[in-house]
Amino acid sequence: MKAICLLSSWILLSGICALSAGPSPTATINFRVRDDDEKPVEGATIVASTFHHWEPAEGFGKDASATFKGTTNADGIVTIVGTSIRGDFSYAVVPLPGFYRGGGGEYKFANVVDATWQPSSPTVDVRVKRIVAPIAMYARKVGQPPNRLRIPEADRPIGYDLIVGDWVSPYGLGVSSDFVFVVNRSLAGNKVFNGTLTTTFSNRGDGIQLVGSPEPVSEFRSPRYAPESGYEPKLVNRIGRAAPDKPIRESGTPDLVYLFRVRTSLDENGHVTTALYGKIYGDFRFDIINGNPAYLLFDYYLNPTPNDRNMEFDPKQNLFSNLKDLDKPTAP
């Protein structure tokens, strides 16, 4: 397959396409593209990029890449053949109408036999998510600078209202304590040794669960629907010891996805009669500066319809109407 240059927001090319000084081993990869219902996706263009050669330039020079592409058949499969010096390929799906952006990754061959990268003709599964039923939600990036959310006090549970988007009274305008946060610190003299942020809830049946670190290649990172069970009543985030006179900060893990349930009512048998469901992209992050809690950051999405577990957010239908751009989530 002929090498071509392709500009794509989903492939990071470190150079330009050029002919190598000598022959490189041949690589063959089969890409099998499926949607999130395991159905084959026909007409999806896969772009694969690999190191081609090094070019002298200012500083340390730069790598030049060769790029190859192909389009899936009715079975969602495309075979791409190219040459590669290192045997490592980055690949992505060109954005498709009716699908969320994503479906990329990397594949590295093991070794070369008779000028052919091995294993011979491997199959790589690629997942893309369909756009099905995006809905309006209360969605907010809490605590983004310069709109920092200061933690009012340490060692005291303080509620946060997800619909109002503020601490509950007397610290803010909130009414319902959907999340209840408390920051505790372990001190050595007047220095902070470590700290914890504990998140709890107000109602029996409320809770949160980690759904893992999904493939970061899809902009729609969460499950399509929140589960009906599995919610834990408490989550603890910890930060470790800092150098003397330095703040300690929890950067969090950006690829995490949490699902939560709040404002839950149960019947006499413990079954949910009504509840609100939502998700968090990333992690709860917090600072302790000069021994005191400082700022809290987290990105949340809340479905406003009771008992509706749909987690597919439409960024054009944010129910917060007065947010600044930095506070608006753009991921679905």
Keywords:
332 residues; disordered N terminus; 2 domains; mainly beta; Immunoglobulin-like; single chain; eight-stranded mixed beta sheet
Would you write up a description of this structure?
This protein has 332 residues and is mainly beta. It has 2 domains: 103 residues, Sandwich (Immunoglobulin-like); 193 residues, no CATH class. It is built from no helices and 22 strands. The strands form 5 sheets. Strands 10, 11, 16, 18, 19, 20, 21 and 22 form an 8-stranded mixed sheet that branches. A 5-stranded antiparallel sheet has the order 13-12-14-15-17, with no helix packed on it. A 4-stranded antiparallel sheet has the order 3-2-5-6, with no helix packed on it. The chain is globular. The two termini are 36 Å apart.
User: What is the helix fraction of residues, given as a range?
Assistant: under 10%
Mean pLDDT: 86
Order of helices and strands: EEEEEEEEEEEEEEEEEEEEEE
Name the structural class: mainly beta
Number of strands: 22
Characterize the largest beta sheet: strand count, sense, and whether it forms a barrel: 8 strands, mixed
- The CA-CA distance between the termini, in Å, is 36 Å
**How many structural domains can be distinguished in the coordinates?**
2
The proportion of strand residues reads over 45%
Low-pLDDT segments, ≥5 res: 1-21
Rg is 24 Å
Tell the overall outline: globular
Number of helices: 0
